[in-house]
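Design job #97: recover the sequence.
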């Protein structure tokens, strides 16, 4: 089982996402467990704030170190200090999240996500506690909850037993550096557009070769960076 532990000041944001579709199935099959920790519960008093002004001036507010540290310590005490915990901070200035990272994280037993807000979190938490700073792209969101949800979804589906057909995941985009190819279903003809004849031929080798060719052409056209890596790997 993989444990997803999320520290957030807005825990209800996760209610629907974690209790629907594939993520819910993973929970029901005891493949994944989701624990949401409300950052406000780690304040020393009801009058205290989770954020404060930055030293040195500047705009925006910074999430304070102590509530976050207390939350992380609480998670480790509940889950077990003997476990290896990867502590992830979603941030635009982190390393870009990709399929390889999702595969790597799917092999862990416990992941802790710290959802930042405003101008981020105290740098001392990033220096001392965080093990992975991850970006989901070159853009800025209002908080870390949505990137956390995206990463959890990507990681969970790679766990065996979550998808009805795990082999299907091996044909997804990025699994082998190629983008996914075109897929068709019934009816055969739709508003003048027909399913390619090769897919109706019953010749599995021709279908496999056709699909690989489609994936290669698509990757070459849309993601030249991936295509170059793919070609280089094939030549090894």
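Job complete. Output follows.
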């Amino acid at each position: 089982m993989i444990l997803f532990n999320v520290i957030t000041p807005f825990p209800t944001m996760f209610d629907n996402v974690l209790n629907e579709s594939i993520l819910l199935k993973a929970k029901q099959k005891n493949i994944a467990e989701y624990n949401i920790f409300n950052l406000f519960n780690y304040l020393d008093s009801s009058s205290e704030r989770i954020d404060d002004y930055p030293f040195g001036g500047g705009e925006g507010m910074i999430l304070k170190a102590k509530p976050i540290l207390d939350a992380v310590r609480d998670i480790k005490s509940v889950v077990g200090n003997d476990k290896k915990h990867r502590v992830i901070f979603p941030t635009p200035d982190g390393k870009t999240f990709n399929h390889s990272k999702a595969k790597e994280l799917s092999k862990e037993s416990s992941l802790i996500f710290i959802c930042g807000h405003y101008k981020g979190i105290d740098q001392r938490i990033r220096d001392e506690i965080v093990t992975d700073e991850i970006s989901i792209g070159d853009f800025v969101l209002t908080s870390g909850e949505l990137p956390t949800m995206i990463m959890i979804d990507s990681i969970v589906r790679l766990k065996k037993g979550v998808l009805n057909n795990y082999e299907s995941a091996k044909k997804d985009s990025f699994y082998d550096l190629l983008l996914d190819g075109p897929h068709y279903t019934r009816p055969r003809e739709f508003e003048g557009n027909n399913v390619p004849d090769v897919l109706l031929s019953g010749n599995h080798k021709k279908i496999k070769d056709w699909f690989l060719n489609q994936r290669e052409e698509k990757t070459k056209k849309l993601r030249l960076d991936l295509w170059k890596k793919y070609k280089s790997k094939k030549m090894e």
